[in-house]
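seq:
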Amino acid sequence: MAEIDWQAVHRLEDAAASATRAADRMKRIYLSGPMTGMPDLNFPAFNAAASALRSAGHDVVNPAEINPDSAMPWEQCMRADIKALCDCDTIAMLPGWENSKGAHLEVHVAHRLGIKVVRIEDIAGGEA
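struct:
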């Protein structure tokens, strides 16, 4: 009968626990905020938020990257954005989202699907 290498078993358990902790930290975060009527569709704010969150190790879904064509109809953009939102764990609300009908729709969908809703400012504090 083969002898069990308990040290190898413990190393595997440690690796699995480490991977689980990393997965818990690595949330897929969807950015939501005002675009319509904003200068440059507010892309600079979306891109800055995405960059900061990615630097912190998060997987970020940025609508400015999903719909870079400013000529695309709002409805078409929202369809693509909501599809992407459905695959996320968290939705982070950018300043001014309260004045955006698209952001209101996204937060409604998030609430109904059990996706965590946070302010972008709160993520820096580790709540995502």
